Amino acid sequence: MGKQQDVGEPDRHSGSDTTAHRPIGGSADARLALAQDPTTPQMTLIDLASDPSAVVRKTVAARADAPAQALRPLTRDHDRQVREAVARNPSTSLANLMRLVKDADRWVRWAVAGNPACDESIRRVMSEASDKELRGLLAESRELEPELAAKLTDDVSPEVRERLATHTHDPDVITTLLADRTARVRKGVARNPRTTAEQRSALAADPVVDVRAALVRAVELDEADLVRLVDDRSVQVRLAMATSEVVPSHIRQMLTRDSDEMVASAARDFRPGSGTSSAVRAPRIAHRPSAAGAGRRAS
């Protein structure tokens, strides 16, 4: 079902954190089953949104077909996991996402970052948030507008800039962050598969060992760069080459004669698919760890 429109009509369950409850008959388990049933009428879902059981309310909050009249009051629910479920729901209106991205609970805010319904207005608020992790999640977004990406290149947090460097598709942003004075940011660029051959050559000559080691683990390099790195002054870099999935076999063969036995042994013993590669992973959309007893019945 498509996104629900938050048209601004008065909430039928008014109140602050706790909403007026219109009771529905049956046990808590029966009400939970009703909330889970795909055939349950929307008017019933609206009533279940004010159920005394947080498990029932969370179930309603997670339904993509939940009506706006049900989701709206749940954005102010006193239970943070209920609000988090609304924040993840792709049918949640932009108005409700805007409210939740400013929520006092970090897990609720972070859940908004992974919602596919976010638009530029939500991302702009995220870019200005004091929450470093929220800005970091934004930095990993593929939908990030060039203006906001450029803004994040000057972020006060090196971690945010590193995450942007690793995931950005914007060539101008990559160029900017390649010149960043913080090594961990350049390390992020080194792991980005969208760098040019010229940029990779520059990174292969980076003065910081961690940057060169990250580079040889993550991306394919030109022959000239690889030959030069075989004789890198750092054992860490040569060891990274010996165990990298993206280094060609003939280069690895050269490392079997390395002066450091650890490097030579790693090159000889390397087996493809051994899990030693440091590939770029998907953006980290934070999920709250399961609470103890999360699988218990509704109460």
Task: Describe it.
It is a single chain. The chain is mainly α and 299 residues long. Helices cover 52% and strands 0% of the residues. The chain is built from 19 helices and no strands. Helix 5 runs parallel beside helix 7 (106-113) and helix 11 packs parallel to helix 13. Mean pLDDT is 88; it is low at 4-22, 276-284 and 290-297.
Short description:
This protein has 299 residues and is an all-alpha fold. The chain has helices at residues 28-36, 42-48, 54-62, 68-74, 80-88, 94-100, 106-113, 120-127, 132-139, 146-152, 158-167, 171-178, 183-190, 197-204, 209-218, 223-230, 235-242, 249-255, 261-269.
List the helices and strands and how they pair.
Blueprint: H1 28-36, H2 42-48, H3 54-62, H4 68-74, H5 80-88, H6 94-100, H7 106-113, H8 120-127, H9 132-139, H10 146-152, H11 158-167, H12 171-178, H13 183-190, H14 197-204, H15 209-218, H16 223-230, H17 235-242, H18 249-255, H19 261-269
Query: Got a strand count?
Result: 0
Largest sheet: none
Q: Report Rg.
A: 25 Å
Q: What is the string of helix and strand elements?
A: HHHHHHHHHHHHHHHHHHH
Shape: elongated
- Overall average residue pLDDT: 88
